């Protein structure tokens, strides 16, 4: 996380460190690479960063690294959060519960407090999940609806 914070907003200047961390055999360093991508490209909506994160989300052997990459999508996309549900829609149907969990987190992080109906629909579709995922999904839906209720009152 420390390395990630050092590269906050640095975009291409972080690419060398990201490449180095991403290729390491140690999953903790690859995990750090995902957060480095997320923070270096935070809010940019960079297709390059999203492509890297999605590739790792479906290919890494470590569930923690996969989760970090999916959550990283929310950080990269926070200025255009309405795109996040479509990006993670297929990941929500994954056989891997860690991937489904992180997908719910990404939608929750990106669209928290927006009342975005698309986000709520995407989260409600992920019904076939275990207990921890249900809790995350409910929290994400509640956060999304909370802002909607504030604007009505």
Protein described:
By secondary structure, this protein is mostly helical. It folds into two domains: 1-79, no CATH class; 80-153, Alpha Horseshoe (Leucine-rich Repeat Variant), CATH 1.25.10. The chain has nine helices and no strands. Helix 3 runs parallel beside helix 5 (63-76) and helix 5 packs parallel to helix 7. The chain is globular and about 40 Å long.
Brief sketch in words of this structure:
This protein is mainly alpha-helical and 153 residues long. It has helices spanning 2-6, 15-22, 27-40, 47-59, 63-76, 84-88, 97-111, 117-125, 131-152.
The dominant shape is globular
- How far the N terminus sits from the C terminus, by CA atoms, comes to 39 Å
Largest sheet: none
Low-confidence stretches: none
Rg over CA atoms, rounded to whole Å, is 15 Å
| Approximate strand percentage | under 5%
Multimeric state? single chain
Percentage of residues in helical conformation: 55-70%
**Number of domain modules:** 2
Overall mean pLDDT = 83
Number of extended strands = 0
Structural class: mainly alpha
Properties at a glance:
153 residues; mainly alpha; Leucine-rich Repeat Variant; 2 domains; 9 helices; 69% helix; globular
